Amino acid sequence: MRRITFDLEVLRTFVTGVDLGSFAKAANRLGRSTSAVSAQLKKLEDQIGAPVLRRVGRGMTPTTAGETLLGYARRLLELNDEAATAVRGVDLEGAVSLGMQEDFGERILTEVLGRFARAHPKIRIAASVARNTELLEQLARGRYDLALTWDSDATPFHAQAIGRLPMRWIGSRNLQPFAATLEEPLPLVVFEAPCLMRSAATAALDQAGIPWRVAFTSPSLSGVWAAVAAGLGVTVRTEIGLPEQLRVLDQEIPNLPSLPMVGLTLHRAAAELDGATQWLRDIVVRTLAEPAHPFTELYSVE
Hints:
This protein has 302 residues and is of the alpha/beta class.
């Protein structure tokens, strides 16, 4: 039986196109022409001797062979990227600290910590989650080397814009959504003030002439998620870190006003990064750039 050696760049194109739902978007994300992407996909199909994609409506979806290949491709690419990071920083030692907004604590922080620990086992990493204000305060006091926050009016330190995401109306997956009418105020579940997404929600409702009331406040994101899941009201966040028991309501509740985009910024405590902090910064950026994360705009940050 002929042994196949896959081209990792071809696999990266295949995975990116499937994750983005468009190989034209994949071409743009990867900096290639659409004709080059088509040639890569043809090479992949020639290698395995079967189609990896089939047309559904105006789009493409993986075939049975494509679905099988997709899982292996993700593992191969992750291992390749970890290996490349590890060999370039094999002798690094020291310590580094990272702070993240609560929205990123469960999924993105877990991915970042796992990849960093595997690539740089000699470097001690300390990480924590907090709200924007606390993250920036602690960064100024030297507690963090890096901090990932939502855009705000606060002093940006040495800031790098990562991208922008849409804010969403969020409600319980298992309960009927609330109506946005002039008769009954819309119940809101929000962070304690100040909170930029709380402000965005109330400003949008005021502009649309829809009455609202604060039904529940919490100092933590876990409290917000729990109250929304229990049906106490709706909230506004992005789709990053959205728990399974919640859902986006933008198209389900008539008259809900549209919401603005929110930017994401990576702050660093020092203008020049040492080796450990640079490696951590690179892993954070690469993790956020993965197609699975719902960025509407992702800036070039390499």
